[in-house]
Amino acid sequence: MSYIILPDGSCLDLDYTSILGASRRDVSQSTAAYEEVLDANVTIETIYILYPQLDNETEAEYKRRIDTLISYRQDRDDAVRSNQSVEDTLYPIHVYSMDRVGRSFR
Q: What gap in Å lies between CA 50 and CA 69, rounded to an integer?
């Protein structure tokens, strides 16, 4: 539990910040994972274009590589959608809370 006691003696509950932060972290992590897999796929494709003799990937391996990329993209998209819902709900509370904190210490 996170609380802040304001100078006027009122108490402000800041528990929402852990949920907001975790949601934003999830988006960052899933975006980074997707970008890593995408970069690896671009590198592999570039190598195969530049050096076709190295392209010994079977159709099954190629499909698995592309399916993995699609899966990571879907995970990222799901995290973004979920975070948007959290942001829509909690960010206005955060703005209100920080405004109250700012005004109370003026």
A: 22
